[in-house]
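Let us practice reading a record.
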Amino acid sequence: MKRLLPLSLPLTLVFIAPALVRAAAPSTPAAPLAATISAEILADTTAIMQGKPFTIAITLTTAPDWHIYWSNAGETGVATSFKWTRAQYPLEPLGFPIPSTFVQPGGAMAFGYTGKTTFVFGVVPPKATAAATGTFSVDVNWLACGKDPCVPGNATLKLIVPLTLQVEQSKEANTDVFDAAWAALPAGVPPNDLFAMAVPFAGKVPDR
């Protein structure tokens, strides 16, 4: 009976080892955290008219408990950035919305946005062009932070707006998005179709 023991022990290990290998196999990977941000690009007009300024909006929407960063991220974080890879007409950023304050782990102070945030860019088409459409492409980069570790993300967005010579075909579009975007900008940033100028007066300030 004692001679059987050395033979029975290796046989037992042969059956146990496959079970251990199956238990160590990796599980299905979780959904990527970068999916916490959605991105959209819109214009405030149904059609472009030559020489008439219009506005493009880029809206980033975070999942609950997540945030992205302002142009000045603060003591930690990375600013949200926009790189236009194609802008058929001259384009100008019109400022970042007013940010919120976030206290990061360790007490670091940061500035950014949570929920739906819209960034606006003014566009001035030329007074004469042979193009039938205006095409715009932009690479958006952000750092999303929340309860889990921070996750960098990006999106490439493309917008094509038709060009028209008929006034009746150029109508306002996405007014709810742009009204909210203008309201979120710091005071002193006028809409793209207005001209603002500060004029100093000597003596009494006029009523108008």
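A brief commentary: DSSP finds two helices and eleven strands in the chain.
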